[in-house]
């Protein structure tokens, strides 16, 4: 058998072969696809699909196989999302040992954080639950996998901006249409604490113009309301009035009927094409929000590796430093637990430091 596997991977007769095209027998249901369909939010589906595609790529790498792109070249890590599909692995053969190999690769080769490895493990467990439900594996194999765990917790790196840095960040934005849009995005990230996926996914029906805020649907379809102060709201409205306009709906193709178009709420943030044209029918992606910040900060040394999440942390930390109760900060961030918020803003660690320094001997 060749070590090079392309597209729909070649069938093999060796028992336990993992990197092969998925053949579910009569049912033909791929447990990975079944797991993805069960996830509630679109963002969770995107995230877990990405994790599972990387699982396939890592499993192939560890076993000495090569996944090939349509041109016959080995698929590189940066191209996993583009070329790897969920049917490139025979999921029922994903054993406890092979899961550990994937986790070990993540830890040693990619230096992944504990939280990242825990997310990968959760994705693989979810697939194997579906594999057992569909009759591909027995309960004994599933239980051995479900017992796997990753101990510990990643220590969060809290990077927050000072007031001077925030002023400098806004000052670095161009005074043109793109700069006006990007200023509005920064105002919402810093002034509302939204995740980049939440900003990218904002639609016009979520904007509360009279209250200067937004109805936000976050992780796990958890809903919350966030507000902007006058300064940040003015930045947002400058984009609405000078760049975007008031278009509230757009027409899109019906997923169930390609010949039919339906009216849906229009995205708040559109994209600019290379020729400078603004297109409200093409919303920003979460990755685009990331790249916007990278582009803005590329020439400013102190903003090296600044991420959208750092702006969210700046929002949260500022609230805590201003005396806002943690329960309120929790609700504004969309966290399920105050403990998550404590970790997020480093409150617990600061309390430990203060307690130690208070000892007078």
Automatic annotation (TrEMBL):
<dbReference type="InterPro" id="IPR050090">
    <property type="entry name" value="Tyrosine_recombinase_XerCD"/>
</dbReference>
<dbReference type="GO" id="GO:0006310">
    <property type="term" value="P:DNA recombination"/>
</dbReference>
<dbReference type="InterPro" id="IPR011010">
    <property type="entry name" value="DNA_brk_join_enz"/>
</dbReference>
<dbReference type="Pfam" id="PF00589">
    <property type="entry name" value="Phage_integrase"/>
</dbReference>
<feature type="domain" description="Tyr recombinase">
    <location>
        <begin position="156"/>
        <end position="357"/>
    </location>
</feature>
<keyword id="KW-0233">DNA recombination</keyword>
<protein>
    <recommendedName>
        <fullName>Tyr recombinase domain-containing protein</fullName>
    </recommendedName>
</protein>
<dbReference type="GO" id="GO:0015074">
    <property type="term" value="P:DNA integration"/>
</dbReference>
<comment type="similarity">
    <text>Belongs to the 'phage' integrase family.</text>
</comment>
<dbReference type="InterPro" id="IPR013762">
    <property type="entry name" value="Integrase-like_cat_sf"/>
</dbReference>
<keyword id="KW-0238">DNA-binding</keyword>
<keyword id="KW-0229">DNA integration</keyword>
<dbReference type="GO" id="GO:0003677">
    <property type="term" value="F:DNA binding"/>
</dbReference>
<dbReference type="InterPro" id="IPR002104">
    <property type="entry name" value="Integrase_catalytic"/>
</dbReference>
């Amino acid at each position: 058998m060749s070590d090079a596997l392309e597209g729909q991977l070649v069938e093999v007769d060796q028992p336990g072969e993992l990197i092969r095209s998925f053949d579910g027998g009569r049912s033909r249901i791929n447990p990975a696809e079944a797991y993805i369909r069960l996830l509630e939010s679109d963002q969770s589906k995107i995230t877990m699909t990405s994790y599972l595609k990387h699982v396939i790529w890592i499993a192939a790498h560890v076993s000495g196989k090569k996944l090939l792109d349509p041109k016959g070249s080995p698929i590189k890590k940066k191209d996993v999302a583009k070329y790897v599909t969920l049917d490139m692995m025979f999921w029922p053969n994903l054993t406890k040992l092979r899961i550990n190999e994937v986790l070990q690769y993540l830890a040693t080769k990619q230096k992944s954080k504990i939280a990242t490895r825990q997310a990968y493990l959760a994705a693989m467990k979810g697939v194997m639950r579906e594999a057992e439900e569909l009759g591909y594996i027995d309960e004994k194999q599933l239980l051995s996998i479900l017992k796997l765990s990753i101990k510990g917790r990643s220590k969060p790196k809290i990077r927050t901006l000072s007031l001077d840095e925030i002023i400098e960040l806004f000052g670095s934005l161009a005074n043109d249409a793109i700069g006006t849009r990007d200023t509005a995005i920064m105002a919402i990230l810093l002034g509302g604490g939204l995740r980049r996926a939440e900003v990218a996914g904002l639609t016009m029906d979520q904007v509360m113009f009279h209250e200067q805020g937004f109805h936000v649907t976050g992780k796990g379809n958890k809903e919350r309301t966030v507000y902007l102060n006058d300064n940040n709201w003015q930045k947002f409205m400058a984009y609405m009035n000078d760049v975007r306009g008031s278009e509230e709906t757009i027409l899109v193709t019906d997923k169930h009927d390609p010949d039919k178009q339906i009216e849906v709420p229009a995205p708040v943030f559109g994209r600019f094409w290379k020729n400078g044209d603004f297109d409200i029918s093409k919303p920003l992606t979460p990755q685009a929000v990331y790249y916007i910040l990278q582009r803005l900060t590329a020439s400013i040394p102190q903003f090296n590796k600044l991420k959208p999440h750092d702006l969210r942390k700046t929002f949260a930390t500022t609230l805590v430093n201003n005396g806002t109760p943690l329960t309120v900060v929790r609700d504004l961030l969309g966290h399920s637990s105050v403990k998550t918020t404590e970790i997020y803003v480093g409150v617990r660690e600061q309390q430990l430091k203060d307690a130690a320094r208070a000892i007078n001997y």
